[in-house]
What we know:
The structure holds 2 protein chains of 2 kinds. By secondary structure, chain A is an all-beta fold.
Amino acid sequence: DIVMTQSPSSLAVSAGETVTINCKSSQSLLSSGNQKNYLAWYQQKPGQSPKLLIYLASTRESGVPDRFIGSGSGTDFTLTISSVQAEDLADYYCQQHYSYPPTFGSGTKLEIK
Amino acid sequence: EVQLQESGPGLVKPSQSLSLTCSVTGYSITSNYWGWIRKFPGNKMEWMGYISYSGSTSYNPSLKSRISITRDTSKNQFFLQLNSVTTEDTATYYCARSNYPYYYVMDAWGQGASVTVSS
Lengths: 113, 119
């Protein structure tokens, strides 16, 4: 199985700041066939179910604000949240959708100061 | 708008079977892929498996001998059965939808069902 390693495990920022969450995979998630990276990001707010933010490393799901930006390639990926808002308080998970079985990172807890 | 809702017992005894139902509204389960994901205390998440629009299944190898996902298309429901549970199966269980060709990207989730395995 592909192991997904996320960092940091938690962070606290003030509203308006920019946040970077990192995700590293134990194998490349880049498809040689279509040159796409098979990495997704989810947001889970307190008391809610996970919500898909981004797939294929950088494709935002419909309705996701453009302050959520996914980037990276191969084994190293980043979720950037620009101008963080109070409503962004949540746990964030990366997940590889490159190979069976899909696997998740351990999560990053984002707190707002 | 698709909506998914899990239901089932919140407490299961060790060695017994865990059974959950996912009721889907606003979308037919004869399209797309329908799966189960669980989140353990401590926040680790595990993809358990899915049942496809045609009824074919795919399971996480870590669970392959214990898991079964089935469906009732007349009720637009699909089901999870996990056999021989232990306390390590205590988790919140989510049902979710995936779309072709990204079978492993879950774009709609249920609210989750908390299941405790304890005697």
